[in-house]
Structure formats: structure tokens, C-alpha cells
Amino acid sequence: MRRPVSLFRDLLFVAGLLLFLPISLAHAASAENRVALVIGQSAYRAVPALPNAANDGKAMAELLTNAGFDVTAAPDQSQNDMRQTISDFAAKVAASGPDTIALVFYAGHGLQIDGENYLVPIDVDPKREADIPLQAVRLNDLLNTLGALPTRMRIIMLDACRNNPFPALNQTAGHGLAIVDTRAGAPGSFISYSTSPGAEAEDGAGADSPYTTAVLSVAKQPNLPIEEAFKRVRVAVSQATDGRQIPWESSSLTTEFRFFGGDAGQPEATAPKSSSTAMRSIDDWRKDLQGKEPKAAYELVIADDSVAAYEAFTMLFAQSSHALRMRSLLERRREMLAWNTAVAINTAASFDEFLASYGNSDLATTARKMRERVLNRSLGANAALTAPVLQPTNVALGPTCPCTIQPTLPLKKDVDTPIKRVNTPPIKQVDLPPTKRVDLPRNKRVDNSKPKRRPPPEEVVVERRPSGPPPGAIMEGIGIGIGIGLGGGFGGHGRGEPMPRSGNYQR
Question: What is the pTM of this model?
Fold first, then answer.
């Protein structure tokens, strides 16, 4: 018989195992399908270090590990290291299967160049704007790499909107990062920025940045959908920075995601009443905000982070202490939407439209440069189209036989003008002389002259002598004439003298 103390100890062990088993199984199940890459860039070589970024990476790696992610930590990455790390992570995601949730957290510097977002490795030392595409890593390359893999969900968290630390780029690069709309890519993507597009994030006074601090606090709340979690992150960061920093996100998720599932003894976290993710008009927002205190209305609008909500707030609370900040957020959001449209269309007209409304923007220099680039490209394309494409062919036809042109008579309609201007002189000089002056005269002159020179003089004499002297005299004269002529020439003296020339005699 077992002792009561031992039995009680066994019961406690079984009860603890039963309580721990569901959580362990949930984490084990999620670990099979959850993989994460955490990059914290602190030790920059050409600019001052970012101490908070390394702390942010360590804290997020610990949080994600507790949430069931298989985490790859990659601090202080050079460009080559960063590209290789992303490639290895993509292979890891692909090997995890189509139900994988892939998450990337990046803390460090980020730049916007020509409407493109770049993540900045620690070995970057740009002397001009054109160096960034060569030395940094395009955000779109990361997004496209993950988007091409068969995954259930892709989550990107960017604490990368800090101030531009490179003096050579301060006059040309835009502030913050440009908008990335996940709806334009593969479904199942979620991107979170530490601040609004075109704005700069703060490092904060603590060990972590205001953005990472808020994520670490909110994500631990059980059974909280990711969209609602980042609405709360937005409100928390706004409060911590006195409204100077407003995080922003874009989502094309088709399934739900929670960092931590709900425990049996804890109620599910509930969203605020006016936090519906459905798109609402300005009138809808005015009805929701009507009668509320300015501070409560401000938090609702910040949580939603939409143009319609900002406009409704500025209409209803024009005299509020938050009105000036809200108008600034509204104007910057409109500007970034206009910039995103101009870059997406990428024509001279689209950049002209942006400059007409935002000629004094920090993006105006980039807009003018990109407009000039589009115009130069268009001029080059037009020059190629209007150039006489047939000129090389026509020049080649000059020294060739003109008979090659005759069988292709229908083509003369299409190329009449080039042929008349280029080919007519060489054809006249080459064709006419050889055919008429060389071939035809030789045959006619040789054949017709022979019959005139062959008839013997005897035949002519025999036919015309019947009415003259007797035949004997003729024969005698011929014999004497011939004999004398052979001996002393046809002009000799003797009996052959009456016929010095056959021509006179014939007449």
C-alpha cells in the first residue's frame, strides 16, 4: 500500500501534466508551421550605431520563440550576409510546407529611393543616391521571394523608418518609407511599419524603440487577432510619442492569426466597438464620433488609421487640441497616396500631377528626377520608332543585281520614297551599258559583213559581158591582167589595161 504523501505527490504531478499538455501541444503544432527571421542592425560602420535595434531583435526573437516560431536570429548583417540569410530562410520556409506561417522582423535603418524601399546593411557607405540600389537590399526582393513560396501567411514587421543618417542623401532621398500595398501582391500578406508612410520613427529613451515596446506588450495578449493587435500597437505608440509617431499596416490576409492562443481560464480579448475592419465613409465616421469626447474620438480614429476617419475628426473637432496633429496626419497620408499613384503609373503626366499639388514636398526632387527619366526614355523610344528602318536594306541593294527588285513589285508601294532617293542612280549606271553596247552589236556586224566580201569577181563579169567583145578576148584579157597584176601589181601595162578597176568596169 502506497503512503498518502506519495500518492498526493503523484496526483499533483498528473494534474500539472494535464494543465501543461494542451499548451505544449499547441506550441508544438504551431512550431511545425511557424518560422521567423529576426534581423537587428546596430553596428553600422559608416554612421553612428543604433543600440536599440540589437535590443529590439533579441526581445522579438524571444517573444516569437515563446509563440511557437522556429526563429533564425541574424544580427548585424552586411549586404552579402543579409542576401544569403534571406535565401537560406526562403529555403527553410519552402521545406516547411504549404501551411507555413513565415514572419520577418527587421530593426535598423531603411531608406526610400525613387519610390523604392531599401533595408540598409551595416556595411553601406553611400556617396550618392545611386549607390543605395547597389549596396542595400530592396524590400520588394524580400517580399517577392516569400510571395513566390507556397505559404499560408507572410508577416513582415519593419522597425526601419528612423531618420536618414547619410548626409549625402539628405537632400534627395524622401523621408521614411514608401507605401507598400499588399493587395497588389499575393494574398495572405501582412506588413506593419513602425510609423506612417513618409514619416520617421523615434528610437525612444528605453532599451527598445516605442514600436517594438508596444508589440512586445500587445502581442502577449491571448487570442488577439493580428489586425486588432496592431490597432492597439498604433494607439500605444501614439500615446508614447505624444502623437508624433503613428504605426501603419497593410493587410491582404485571408485567414486569422494570433501570436498566442486563448488559455482555458482566460476570456478572449475583445475589440473596441468601433474597430471594425470594414471600409467606412466619412459620413459613417461622423455618426460614430458624434457626441464623443475628443480624446476618445482621437483614439478610435488613430486605431482605424484611414483617410475617411481623419477627415471626419477634423470636421467635428476642429477646435480640439488634437486637431492640428490630425490635419497633419491627413495631409501626409494624402500626399503619400498621391506619390504611390504617381510611381505606380510612372509617366511624365503622373509626376506632373503630383508636383502640381505637392511641389514643396520632400519627394519633389525625386519626382522631378523620375519625370526627367521617363521623358528621356520616351524620347529614345520615339527616335527608334521614327528612324528609317529600311535604310540599311536599301544601301545593300545598290551593288546587287537589279533583277532581284523586279519580282517583288508589290513592295514598291511601301518603300517608294526610299528606293527613288537612294537606289535610282546606281541602277542606271550599272544596267544600261552592258546589255546594249556589248552583246547586240557583235552578233549583227560579224554575220552581215561576211556575205558582202565573199562573192568572186568572175561571177559578176560573166553575167554582164554578152553584149561586149567576144568571149575569147575576155578570157585573154583576164589571163593577161591577172598575170601582170600578180607580177607587178594591179596597175601594170599591157593588154589588161582597159580594166584598171573592177568597179568602173562593172558600171
Answer: 0.66
In DSSP terms, 154 is beta-bridged to 102, 189
Looking at residue 89, its pLDDT comes to 97
Domain boundaries, the chain: 29-262, 346-386, 457-506
Count of CB atoms situated within 10 Å of the CB of 75: 18
Residues in the chain predicted with pLDDT less than 50, given as ranges, are: 1-2, 4-5, 7-8, 11-31, 263-277, 393-420, 422, 427, 430, 435-436, 438, 443-444, 446, 459-462, 471-507
DSSP characters over 7-65: HHHHHHHHHHHHHHHHHHHHHHHHHHHEEEEEEE----SSS---HHHHHHHHHHHHHHH
CA proximity to 306, closest of 288, 335, 285, 283: 285
Number of other CB atoms surrounding residue 313 within 10 Å: 26
What is the sign, positive or negative, of the torsion defined by CA atoms of 315, 316, 318, 324?
A: negative
Quick: pLDDT tens for 326-382.
898 889 889 888 988 998 898 999 999 999 999 988 888 888 888 998 888 877 666
DSSP state at residue 406:
G
Calculated CA dihedral for residues 397, 398, 404, 409, nearest 10 degrees? 80
Q: Which CATH architecture has domain 29-262?
A: 3-Layer(aba) Sandwich (3.40)
Residue 32 CA to residue 22 CA, distance in Å, equals 16
- Residue 93: name the closest of 138, 140, 156, 49 by CA: 156
- Strands ordered across the beta sheet of 34-40: 70-73, 34-40, 101-107, 153-159, 189-193, 248-251
Half-sphere exposure of 215 (CA within 13 A, CB side): 29
- What is the Cα–Cα distance from 311 to 330, expressed in whole angstroms? 7
Return the exposure string of 158-197: e unless at least 16 CB atoms fall within 10 Å of the residue's CB, then b: bbbbbebbbeebeebbbbbbbbbebeebeebbbbbbbbbb
DSSP β-ladder status, 153-159 and 101-107: parallel
Enclosing H/E stretch for 117: strand 116-119
